[in-house]
């Protein structure tokens, strides 16, 4: 609904100035619902997913001869996308202050200066999280009638982002320092073992700082796992706003609103 409202709010009259015409065109492409806009948004989404795959594989590709070429190419793509999204925003300065946009700008800086900001490269995977702040990733689900799985998919993405951020941090901070972590796969193995509280003990982060890192990973990791399990195994709910109090999710067979007791009339798709 928000996307439709935003798209319908776009001025139908073409502006006279070329800059305003460009902004209008970009706004229609990024936020519109036309077939052309949907194709454009699909291409942008696929490019973003390819960039995220590169970010995940970066520690394994860093020593290859083509790494810097790919790195700067992605920086150019991300810079063009950020500029276009800023022009498409109705209030560019307000858009610029949004937290996901700030993260994207920082990611762009790590791409432009990979040697100077090498130790912060693991934060690039946050691009996956910022992508979920956009409606482009959710519109295909709505089109396929899978919008009820949005919370579950978001929980999976949050878990993956945390997993790879921690893996990158552990690899950057503790590799080759007496921790038993000789490579990126070892860091990934330690992170998964710690998040699941398996605790094999074959890889242990040294010192007090290492113990504190392990504690934080265990607490947050278990919380993310529990959240994901709740979304997977709890009874499925449907989207039906209560006309009395506005509660939007109810059990499929609900007769009264759980919050205010108002009589509901939820349509039955099987009838």
UniProtKB/TrEMBL annotation:
Keywords: Ion channel, Ion transport, Membrane, Transmembrane, Transmembrane helix, Transport
TM stretches of this protein: 43-61, 67-87, 99-118, 153-174, 181-200, 212-233
Record's subcellular location: Membrane
Domain of life of the native organism: Bacteria
InterPro entries: K_chnl_dom, K_chnl_volt-dep_EAG/ELK/ERG, VG_K_chnl
Pfam families: Ion_trans_2
Gene Ontology BP, a term: monoatomic ion transmembrane transport
Domain Potassium channel: residue ranges: 160-232
Topology within the bilayer: Multi-pass membrane protein
PANTHER family: POTASSIUM VOLTAGE-GATED CHANNEL PROTEIN SHAB (PTHR11537:SF254), VOLTAGE-GATED POTASSIUM CHANNEL (PTHR11537)
Protein name: Potassium channel family protein
Organism for this UniProt entry: Devosia honganensis
